[in-house]
């Protein structure tokens, strides 16, 4: 009998990268592997994707783990550096870094580096989280072009706020700001992450940055899946039925008795819970697959168990 197990399908991961290349054929790929590759394993994922053109991370520590693990491709620090003292390491390891505020720019201007750093100036086109405001961008860009510690030309990056909402108009506005600023500038450009790759081909430019879609999960909120775009799920979370019980109509199940059966049925108890990473907030009705068919969770998710309604005619057995 198998307890909760995560299975990573490396073939699906490679397939997804190739599928995204088909969707953005003129662009290079920054495979985003931040947050332990979305839980899929940082080094394992990077080693599975030798054809990626670069890797994107959120922290310098992640970039250093990639280098220590033998990854020699470019690594982009998507949030830039957090401390000026990190610049010599970034330079020595040939990491790329976003630069999005005055403090980072001043640190670059004042640093004493053996080699210049490849920089991606982050332009705030509408996310309003990180980035240089458009009215300040030309002066900021000019200082980067004059900085001895910046490898020329300066690259330009931004990020969509609502790429998953194709009818809201926000993405068109961001694209217009991005295009206006980039016009006539020689560096590489990147604005499309997962949603941009799927829905906005005019945003692909020189580099795209697939994140969640690389792992087979749609970033869109319209109930689409990765399969709708030709991608495959990379992670499977599986377990076993540890009990199958007869359950009477009117009986509650689990903590708080939040679900009460309206019929006689058969309940399955699965060795899986929030202690295994399953979302504790998953409500009754959340679908899971049991022996290839979809059945609903019933009752609250416990630390190491969930209950599912198998149906009154179910023939499933524990094990």
Would you mind describing this structure in some detail?
The protein is an alpha/beta fold. It folds into two domains: 10-231, TIM Barrel (Alpha-Beta Barrel), CATH 3.20.20.10; 239-309, Lyase, Ornithine Decarboxylase, Chain A, domain 1 (Beta Barrel). It has nine helices and 17 strands. The strands form four sheets. The chain has an eight-stranded parallel beta sheet. Strands 11-14-17-16-15 form a five-stranded antiparallel beta sheet, with no helix packed on it. Strand 15 (287-290) and strand 16 form a beta hairpin. The longest helix is centred in the first third of the chain and has 14 residues, at 10-23. The radius of gyration is 24 Å and the shape is elongated. It starts with a strand and ends in a 10-residue tail after the last strand. The model has no long low-confidence stretch (mean pLDDT 97).
Unreliable segments of 5+ consecutive residues? none
What's the CATH superfamily of the largest domain, by name?
Answer: Alanine racemase
User: Please, what is the average pLDDT?
Assistant: 97
User: Order of strands across the widest beta sheet?
Assistant: 8-7-6-5-4-3-2-9
Helical residues, percent: 25-40%
State the major sheet. 8 strands, parallel
Rounded to an integer, what's the Rg over CA atoms?
Answer: 24 Å
Tertiary shape:
elongated
What is the CATH class of the largest domain?
A: Alpha Beta
Overall strand count? 17
The portion of residues forming beta strands comes to 15-25%
Number of helices: 9
CATH architecture type of the largest domain: Alpha-Beta Barrel
CATH fold naming of the largest domain: TIM Barrel
InterPro entries: Ala_racemase, Ala_racemase/Decarboxylase_C, Ala_racemase_C, Ala_racemase_N, Ala_racemase_pyridoxalP-BS, PLP-binding_barrel
Pathway: Amino-acid biosynthesis; D-alanine biosynthesis; D-alanine from L-alanine: step 1/1; Cell wall biogenesis; peptidoglycan biosynthesis
Keywords: Isomerase, Pyridoxal phosphate
GO biological process, one term: D-alanine biosynthetic process
């Amino acid at each position: 009998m198998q307890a909760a197990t995560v299975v990573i399908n490396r073939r699906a991961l490679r397939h997804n990268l190739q599928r995204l290349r088909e969707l953005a054929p003129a662009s290079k790929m920054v495979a985003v592997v931040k947050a332990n590759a979305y839980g899929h394993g940082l080094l394992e994922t990077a080693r599975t994707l030798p054809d990626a053109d670069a890797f994107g991370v959120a922290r310098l520590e992640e970039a250093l783990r990639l280098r220590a693990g033998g990854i020699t491709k470019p690594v982009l620090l998507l949030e830039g550096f957090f401390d000026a003292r990190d610049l010599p390491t970034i330079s020595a390891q040939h990491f790329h870094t976003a630069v999005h505020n005055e403090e980072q720019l001043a640190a670059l201007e004042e640093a004493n580096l053996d080699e210049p750093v490849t920089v991606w100036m982050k332009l705030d086109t509408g996310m309003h989280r990180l980035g240089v405001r458009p009215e300040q961008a030309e002066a900021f860009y000019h200082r980067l072009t004059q900085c001895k510690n910046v490898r020329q030309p300066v690259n330009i990056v931004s990020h969509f706020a609502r790429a998953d909402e194709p009818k809201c108009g926000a993405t068109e506005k961001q694209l217009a700001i991005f295009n206006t600023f980039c016009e006539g500038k020689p560096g590489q450009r990147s604005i499309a992450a997962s949603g941009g790759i799927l829905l906005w081909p005019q945003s692909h430019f020189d580099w795209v940055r697939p994140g969640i879609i690389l792992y087979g999960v749609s970033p869109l909120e319209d109930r689409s899946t990765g399969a709708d775009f030709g991608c495959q799920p990379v992670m499977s979370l599986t377990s076993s039925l540890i009990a199958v019980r007869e359950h009477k109509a009117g009986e509650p199940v689990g903590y708080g008795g939040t679900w009460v059966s309206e019929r006689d049925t058969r309940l399955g108890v699965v060795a899986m819970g929030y202690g295994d990473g399953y979302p504790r907030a998953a409500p009754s009705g959340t679908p899971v697959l049991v022996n290839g068919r979809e059945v609903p969770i019933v009752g609250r998710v416990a630390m190491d168990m969930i209950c599912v309604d198998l149906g009154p005619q179910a023939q499933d057995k524990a094990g």
